[in-house]
Every structure is written in structure tokens, then in C-alpha cells.
From TrEMBL, chains A, B:
Protein name (record): Uncharacterized protein
Assembly notes: Heterodimer of an alpha and beta chain produced by autocleavage.
Reactions that this protein is recorded to catalyse: Cleavage of a beta-linked Asp residue from the N-terminus of a polypeptide; L-asparagine + H2O = L-aspartate + NH4(+)
Function: Has both L-asparaginase and beta-aspartyl peptidase activity. Does not have aspartylglucosaminidase activity and is inactive toward GlcNAc-L-Asn. Likewise, has no activity toward glutamine.
Database matches in Gene3D superfamilies: (Glycosyl)asparaginase
Active site, per annotation: T172 (nucleophile)
Highest taxon of source: Eukaryota
Gene name for this UniProt entry: Dwil\GK18649
Residues annotated to bind substrate: R200, I201, G202, D203, T223, G224, H225, G226
The EC number(s) this enzyme carries: 3.-.-.-
SUPFAM superfamilies named among the record's database cross-references: N-terminal nucleophile aminohydrolases (Ntn hydrolases)
Signal peptide: none
GO cellular component labels: cytoplasm
């Protein structure tokens, strides 16, 4: 297998003016994840590092830059999964930390639970030196406030458009990675959906909903209308096609997302790496930002069919 | 299809002395669910009614009788799903109400979200006249307090036994139902696991983890070691076998649970009704209480291979 790190920066109606910063962000994240993979050899480090990069970037809806609840707060979901062991960590209603994906990993590695939400999750963060607990409101950006205002104003107008169009603010982030031995991992992190009720949980922390990794099938991270991805069990349906119907990651992603959008009129996107190392990148939304690094090649795109290529230096393997 | 309501009262090490009350409880729940199905014609009413019966029964770990967190509180998870529409409602960290499954249904029917946790969920309950908000501690039973004491004491002794044996207190509850037209629904409700950290979420509210319903495959409710069920994505794996490998509900339940227990050394149980109306009942734990009503027949059991039969009156269909 060729070591690869593939990231997405969210599916949705990305404005033309937002494209350059989205591309910059996913390229940077793919490179950070790939560097972690080469240096530590760990697919978990790769997906965590890639997602950390996007969480720290205000141009994506995760960590800093997360969209806001109806009350104007940030409440974040994240999950991470190891395809070799099926170990996983999930977190919901995380607040005041930049890197919820690292908290999900800490839940996986230090507790006997797989999923912790709210105050209980914040207790885990506070017990660790790895997490800086920010002041309330520190993660709130002007752009997120503006989106919330626009959303509230839209409620007084027509409700004819589909939810995911009205709410906008695409930018859930995710990463999948594979190492030379075929070990895979997946990670997803999000601020959710603009104007959500406090306490709302989306698909990102749901294993089989928005995230899963299994060396025997694939590593997958989804993005899009969380309620629909969750109820349609998108990632699990995809894995079933890989396992039982001999689909590639790409074929399975296309089939499940197209079926979902046809049935429910909501859109989503997927990135995946299957058990044979094949990549899957598909979205039924207008756009999705994505990038992957494999060796010296850095591929990226935002529009359907787009696949740009840059040649970058491979990170150096540290001396033994 | 023959209308059927199948319930479980949890998989685990049920003590001999506990068997009579477990059997009484699951039989009563199956009858209440079946009566709701015949009277209203709704599989959602059926699974909600059956689960309500078990939530109100202190002999099960859901609603009244829920096990306690490390801090001695009750924090409940539940989910409900409609197999015809794939509509679903999920709730976590519910407190001070007897019927979390009804709150899950209310989230499904009155919000634009599918999953709400904690204070946000309690806000939904408080806005409705259907939910009586009890005083803090009202759901805490002496038996649950004793289980927590036993769990804490066990931490000072050996840690060699598997988690699900140490924690004991089986009793997550669930129901699946099918109507004459082949519509299915599923519901699961739980207090979780004794001594859990505050904020811990198990498999019960996870669509594809512990609960799912799809007319095209099956309705399923799982019980057992939640962390393992969640990471193994038990219900989704089962549905994949029904959809792609032509398994019956029983064959799929046996295969997935046996594989899970073999790989992770944790146990679980499943009830299911597949798209052809066939029932699946399987557990890898020592025992699981279950019952179903179909016409005048009321079947029930607790031990492996047990299938007792009582003939009961069919509820009368209300006059038009």
C-alpha cells in the first residue's frame, strides 16, 4: 500500500470567493497529516494531525470557526477510529477547546468508554495538560455570527429551499489515512449546523453514521446534512457495499450518496480509503473541498470532477 | 405479515432469583405493545408502548430503575426509528423523566434534529405537557444504589473479569414491531452501565449501533456491552447481512454477535424482525429476557433455547 492521507473540508454551497482559502486549508491539512504519518508511522497521528490543522483554521466549521447554536454558542462533535483494532473515541457538546478530535482520541485512550458528551467530556479535557480551556466565546468568529444572523433572518422568509442550502456554512472536516501495511484510520470534527438547538448531535461522532474505520473494509469520513446522514446510516451502508458487494470506495460512495440525495433531497460528501488502498471522493452538494498527499503528489479540488496536482517534497523520515 | 411485537429486557448475568420478575415484565411489555399496535395500527405506538412499560418497571435498567453514574445520578439514552420513512429520534443524558423513549419520539416529531442530548433535550421535555419532570433522584432505586456500591467495591479487587460481568445490572430494554403491511419500527431505552462517567453515551441511541429500523431490511434493538456494540457497529453489520447476503434476522443476529463476542470478549443480545416478518432472538450473554406477542400467542424466555408459550386473548380492534 502507498501511504496516503486524504482530507475534506466540508460539503456544501462554497462561494466562489471562499475557494482559495478552502483549497489552501485542505492542502495544508493533507500535508500535515502526511508528515505525521511518515514521521510516526501512525495512521491515528495522521488523521488527528490533519484534522487539527483544519480545526485551527477559521475557514472551516470545526474548532476555531465553528458555526453557532441558536443561542450563539459553539458546541462541537468529533470522532476518531482505528481500523486495525476498531478502537474509537467520540465526543459531543465539546466547548472552549480548539481540538475536539484530540479530546475524542483522549477519550479513546484513557477511559473505558467510547463516547462522552458535555460536562463529562470537558472534565476529561480539564484533567489533561494537552488541552487549553479557552474563555467562553473564544472560538466564536465574526463569520459564524454573521451566518447565525442570516439564518435567523431567513426564517422570516420562504422555507422552500432545502435545509442544507438555507443553513449554508459548509466546513465539517475529516481525514482518512492508510499506511504501507494497510492500516486505516478515520476522523471527523464539526461545529454542526448554524442555528441548531443546544444539545443537537449530528452524524460526525456517530460510528457508522459519519465516521468509521475498519482495515477489512474502509476508512470513511462524511460531511453534509447531519440529520440525513445519521438516519440513512451513510457510512455503514457504504461499508456494506465494500464488504458484501465488492464495490470500490468510489463506487460505494457514489451509490450511497446518490441514493440518499434522491430519497431525502439533502446533500452530503464522503472521503474514503478502502482495504485495497483505493480512494473514494464523492459529493452530491455543489462543492466539497478535499486534498490528499501520496508520496510527492498533492491532489486537491473543490468542484465536481476537479483534480489539481502539485508536486511537493516528501517529508523526510527521521533518522533511526 | 402477521402483526408482532417483540421486546427484550436486557442481556447479561440475570440471577436465578430475578427471573420471575424479568419474565413478568417482558410479557407485560409485549402485550402492551401489541395492544397499541392492534388499536392504533402504528408500529411506532407499539414499540413506544412496549418500551414505556419496561421504563416504568423498576426491574429493568431504563427509566425508573436505571443504573447510576459514578456520581450516583441517572443519565438515560434512548432512540426510536420508523422503518417506512427512516425517521428517527435519539436522546442522551436525559434525566428526571420516566419515559426517555417518548422524549426521543418527541424529538423526532417536533424538531428539525434527530438527536439531542442533555439540557437541550430536557428543554424539549419541559416544553411539553406529556412529560412530568420529577424531582432529582426520583428515579434512583435502592437496587441501583446497591449495584453502584458493589461496582465501586469491585474496583479494589481483581480486574480480571470482563467489564460486562463486573458491572452486572443487565436491563437495557427494547422493542421491535411489524404490522400487517410489513412496516417495522424499533426502540431502545437504557440507563447505561453502572458506575459510568457522567456524560457517557452507549450504543442505544446510536442508529446502526444499538437501534435501526428499515422496512427493506429489518428492525433491530441491541443490548449488552454498549462500548463494544458501538465500535463493532453491531446493528449495521446485521442489516448488511440481511440486505446483501440473504440472511434471515436470526442468522444475521447469530453471526454478528458470535463474531463480536469472539473478537472482543464482551457479550450482547439482539431482537429483530426482518423484512419478511421473520424474528431473530439471540444473545451471547448468559441470559436475556425477551417476549413477543403474535395473535393469541405470547412467547417468552430467559435462558438460551427457552421458548415458553402462553395463549392470551387478542386485544379487540376498536369499532369503526
Amino acid at each position: 500500500f502507498e501511504p496516503t492521507v486524504l482530507v475534506h473540508g466540508g460539503a456544501g454551497d462554497i462561494a466562489d470567493s471562499g475557494i482559495p482559502l478552502k483549497k489552501l486549508g485542505v492542502k495544508r491539512a493533507a500535508r500535515r497529516g502526511y508528515e505525521a504519518l511518515i514521521k510516526s508511522g501512525s495512521v491515528l497521528d495522521a488523521v488527528e494531525g490533519a484534522v487539527n490543522s483544519l480545526e485551527e483554521d477559521v475557514n472551516f466549521n470545526a474548532g476555531n470557526g465553528s458555526v453557532l447554536t441558536w443561542d450563539g454558542d459553539v458546541e462541537m462533535d468529533a470522532s476518531i477510529m482505528n481500523g486495525a483494532t476498531l478502537e474509537a473515541g467520540c465526543v459531543s457538546l465539546a466547548r472552549d477547546i480548539i481540538n475536539p478530535i484530540s479530546l475524542a482520541r483522549r477519550i479513546m485512550e484513557t477511559t473505558r468508554h467510547r463516547y462522552i458528551a458535555g460536562e463529562g467530556a470537558m472534565n476529561i479535557a480539564m484533567e489533561s495538560e494537552n488541552f487549553k480551556i479557552l474563555q467562553k466565546g473564544a472560538l466564536v468568529t465574526e463569520a459564524a455570527q454573521k451566518s447565525l444572523e442570516n439564518y435567523k433572518a431567513s426564517l422570516n422568509r420562504t422555507r422552500s429551499k432545502r435545509e442544507s442550502q438555507i443553513y449554508g456554512s459548509p466546513g465539517t472536516v475529516g481525514a482518512v489515512a492508510i499506511d504501507a501495511c494497510g492500516n486505516v484510520a478515520a476522523a471527523t470534527s464539526t461545529g454542526g449546523i448554524t442555528g441548531k438547538l443546544s444539545g443537537r448531535i449530528g452524524d460526525s461522532p456517530i460510528l457508522g453514521g459519519g465516521t468509521y474505520a475498519d482495515n477489512e473494509t474502509a476508512a470513511v469520513s462524511a460531511t453534509g446534512h447531519g440529520e440525513t446522514i445519521m438516519r440513512y446510516n451513510v457510512v455503514s451502508r457504504m461499508l456494506a457495499l465494500v464488504q458484501h458487494a465488492n464495490h470500490t470506495a468510489q463506487e460505494a460512495a457514489e451509490r450511497v450518496l446518490n441514493e440518499m440525495t434522491q430519497r431525502f433531497d439533502e446533500t452530503a460528501g464522503i472521503i474514503a480509503i478502502d482495504h485495497r488502498g483505493r480512494l473514494g471522493i464523492h459529493f452530491t452538494s455543489k462543492r466539497m473541498s478535499w486534498a490528499y498527499q501520496r508520496g510527492e503528489e498533492l491532489h486537491f479540488g473543490v468542484d465536481a470532477g476537479e483534480d489539481q496536482l502539485e508536486i511537493v517534497g516528501e517529508p523526510r523520515v527521521p533518522p533511526l
